[in-house]
Amino acid sequence: QVQLVESGGGLAQPGGSLRLSCAASGFTFSRYAMSWARQAPGKGLEWVSGIYSDGSDTAYADSVKGRFTISRDNAKNTLYLQMNSLKPEDTALYYCVKTVYVNYIHGGYDYWGQGTQVTVSS
Length: 122
Prior knowledge:
The protein is globular. It is mostly beta strands. It has no helices and 11 strands. The termini are far apart.
């Protein structure tokens, strides 16, 4: 069965960095585009970033553009999100998301991980 297991969350100070990882199993990871999404306390779900199956293209929400970098290692079946210049408003539960597409990242989400908490506070 499909499993997406996030890790790397925690407490960071404003301006700090964290690197999230998502270990994928139960499907051919290299064949699917992947995304990260987040949900802040009391707010709706927000798409954060996505990457094509082969890593050839990426996209970011305006709120994180220039600060976050998505990447993947298809040999290790792992998705990453490098988060720099963190702000308190980045505090949220971050989810790894699989799509049904090879190279489309703005929909077709079929599996979600359990999430990893990121808290940005001084």
